[in-house]
């Protein structure tokens, strides 16, 4: 009776601790994400003011402009204010969702982001699904059959492609498969998202045709990272006792891999998937620029060339926010996959 009376409060205390641990864990991760966003907000403002060049003179396109007109332009965009006042104004507006007005387009930055976002999601979203699926499949297969010729081939190819600069591979694909090289004719467009003048199903086919080379570039460069992380995580689980027990029960090898080994090796891969998903929202600047894809990456490159400070700052904040949010979601998903995390 005494032992029952003692064990009851202990069990109750453990349940109470478990009930409060996850909310504290969530609060800590969300608080860290908010601090990171604040740091990005501050960094983005000062970082891009180090870019050489006068945005106002660039906007005039080299035309002769009087000093009075230049002063009027600077006053219109708030560039005549002291730096600290520009900073406080920028932070106050950004916290309410106002990212300012683009210098070159004379439209709100948020409208330009909203306009280009679907194009980026189409390109990098398609590539994300393909390279994540391919990397996970080949990574788990390679780990399960590690040391064999197929494993060495997959690992070597993944390491090679992962080290290739995406812009270089994109240019190479354009030369070979768009322009044509020797006996290989030009099969795909050199850039852009559409040829124009098409509607309905013909338009969808045209967009898909333009999508092939940039998607291949992204998949070729990115799948290797997923493969290597999935392979490494699964190799760490290979010698575990629970896998030996599962085999001793007579379960088939593929069943042991799918039901036991792979789920327990998911944590590092989940982190990578969420980070890559954040990059998907952010877009891939170099690939979109090489293929003249009208997405966020191409818009960022175009804004940097002016420099269009409100547009650059807004895109930088948007890109960083996407990565921070996805990292936070990955952290919050950990305890759902492994109850030991966050307890």
Give a written overview of the molecule.
The chain is an all-alpha fold. It is 75% helix and 0% strand. α1 packs across α4, α1 packs antiparallel against α14 and α7 runs antiparallel to α8. It is flat. The relative contact order is 0.14. About 2% of the residues have low confidence.
Write the layout of secondary structure elements.
Elements: H1 2-47, H2 55-59, H3 67-76, H4 83-94, H5 109-144, H6 149-162, H7 166-180, H8 200-237, H9 241-248, H10 253-264, H11 266-282, H12 285-290, H13 296-304, H14 309-337
Helix content: over 70%
Order of helices and strands: HHHHHHHHHHHHHH
Which regions contain 5 or more consecutive residues with pLDDT less than 50? 5-11
N-to-C CA distance: 31 Å
* Overall spatial form: flat
Q: What is the number of beta strands?
A: 0
Overall average pLDDT: 80
Q: Helix count, per DSSP?
A: 14
Counting helices, strands and paired strands, the structural category is: mainly alpha
Which structural traits does this protein have?
343 residues, mainly alpha
In brief, what are we looking at here?
By secondary structure, the protein is mainly alpha-helical. It has helices at residues 2-47, 55-59, 67-76, 83-94, 109-144, 149-162, 166-180, 200-237, 241-248, 253-264, 266-282, 285-290, 296-304, 309-337.
